[in-house]
From TrEMBL:
The organism of origin for this protein: Shinella granuli
Function: Catalyzes the stereoinversion of LL-2,6-diaminopimelate (L,L-DAP) to meso-diaminopimelate (meso-DAP), a precursor of L-lysine and an essential component of the bacterial peptidoglycan.
Keywords noted in UniProt: Amino-acid biosynthesis, Cytoplasm, Isomerase, Lysine biosynthesis
GO CC annotations, alphabetized: cytosol
PANTHER family assigned to the protein according to its UniProt record, in alphabetical order: DIAMINOPIMELATE EPIMERASE (PTHR31689:SF0), DIAMINOPIMELATE EPIMERASE, CHLOROPLASTIC (PTHR31689)
Main enzyme class: isomerase
Protein name: Diaminopimelate epimerase
Length: 299
C-alpha cells in the first residue's frame, strides 16, 4: 500500500472540505491526521470526506466523514456536493449513490454545475435525535440561553438529518448574534447527549430564510448543508414556510443560497454549488501533505 493518496481542497458555499480518495485501501484517515491538517492554515477545513470502496451493491462509494476536531459526523451536505463534483470530473458520470453511516444518499450533478443531494428523511423522535429529555413535540423544545426572563435564544426546533440539529428562530439578521459565544454552550448543552449543530434562522418569506450555523465538532463555519436542510424542514414543520425554501447562508461568501425541498415522499433534497480549489497528495495516517502546485508543503 502506498503511503500517500490523492486529495482535493474544495468548498461548498465556503464550508471548507477536504475530499480524500481512499479507494483501493483498507486504512482510514485518522483523527490524528485530521487534527494535523486542520492546524495547518493551508489545509484548514471543516470536514474531511473520505471516499472508500463501496460496501453494498448499487452504491458508488462509502463516505466516511470527519470533523476538524477528529470526531466523526454522520452527514455533511456541502461535503457530499464536493464529492459529487470530484467524482463527476473524474468519471464523467452525473448520477451517484453513496453509503454513509446514516444511510444511502442519491445525488446528481445538473447541466449548470449545481448539485442536488437527496439527504434522506428527517428524524423527529426525541430519542433518535437524540435529546436527553422526552419531548412529544420536538418542533419546539424547552431550551433557552440568556437571562431567564429575557432569553437571547429560546425554544428551538430539534431534529436529525442523520446528525443532530437545533434551529433557533430569530427576528433579525443571524450575523448580528454572538454565535461564537452561544454556539459552544448550546453545542455542548446537556440536552444534546451527542452534542448538536446549532443554527440561527430568520424567516424572510414563505419561501425563503437566512441562516448561520455553529457546527458540532467544527465551530463557526461559513456554511452547513445539513443545517440548511434542518432549517428548511423545521420552517415547514412549524408552519413558518412552505416545503421548498431558498436558504441564504448569511456567513458564506456573497451570502450564497441553497435550495431545500422537503418532498412529498418525506425526503429532503438540497441543491447548491461546489468549488474545487487545489489538489495534492496526502498521508492519511499523519496528515502530511504535498500540493500539486508550486506552493507545495514537503511530505
Ligand atoms: N458541514 C456539514 C455538516 C458537518 C457535520 C457536523 N459538524 C456534525 O458533526 O454533525 C454540512 O454541510 O452538512
Amino acid at each position: 500500500m502506498t503511503k500517500t493518496v490523492d486529495f482535493a481542497k474544495m468548498n461548498g458555499l465556503g464550508n471548507m472540505i477536504l475530499v480524500v480518495d481512499m479507494r483501493g485501501r483498507s486504512d482510514v484517515v485518522t483523527p490524528e491526521a485530521a487534527i494535523a491538517l486542520n492546524a495547518d492554515p493551508a489545509t484548514r477545513f471543516d470536514q474531511i470526506m473520505a471516499i472508500h470502496d463501496p460496501r453494498v451493491d448499487g452504491t458508488d462509494a462509502f463516505i466516511d466523514i470527519l470533523n476538524c476536531d477528529g470526531s466523526k459526523a454522520q452527514a455533511c451536505g456541502n461535503g457530499t456536493r464536493c464529492v459529487v463534483q470530484a467524482l463527476a470530473a473524474e468519471t464523467g458520470k452525473k448520477v451517484f449513490t453513496f453509503q454513509t453511516v446514516a444511510g444511502i444518499l442519491n445525488a446528481v450533478e445538473h447541466e449548470d454545475g449545481t448539485i442536488s443531494v437527496d439527504m434522506g428523511r428527517p428524524v423527529f423522535d426525541w430519542n433518535r435525535i437524540p435529546l436527553a429529555e422526552e419531548f412529544f413535540d420536538t418542533s419546539r423544545i424547552e431550551l433557552q440561553i440568556g437571562p431567564i426572563d429575557a432569553p437571547v435564544l429560546h425554544s428551538p426546533a430539534a431534529m436529525s438529518m442523520g446528525n443532530p440539529h437545533a434551529v433557533f428562530w430569530v427576528d433579525r439578521d443571524p450575523m448580528s448574534f454572538d454565535l461564537e459565544r452561544f454556539g459552544p454552550l448550546l453545542e455542548n448543552h446537556p440536552m444534546f447527549p451527542e452534542k448538536a449543530n446549532i443554527t440561527l434562522a430568520q424567516v424572510t418569506s414563505n419561501a425563503s430564510m437566512t441562516t448561520r450555523t455553529w457546527e458540532r465538532g467544527a465551530g463557526l463555519t461559513l456554511a452547513c448543508g445539513s443545517a440548511a436542510c434542518a432549517a428548511g424542514v423545521s420552517g415547514a414543520r412549524t408552519g413558518r414556510t412552505g416545503r421548498k425554501v431558498a436558504i441564504t447562508v448569511a456567513s458564506s461568501p456573497n451570502r450564497g443560497v441553497l435550495t431545500i425541498e422537503w418532498r412529498g415522499d418525506d425526503h429532503v433534497v438540497m441543491t447548491g454549488p461546489a468549488e474545487w480549489e487545489w489538489s495534492g497528495m496526502l498521508d492519511p495516517s499523519t496528515g502530511a501533505f504535498r500540493r500539486d502546485d508550486a506552493e507545495a508543503a514537503a511530505l
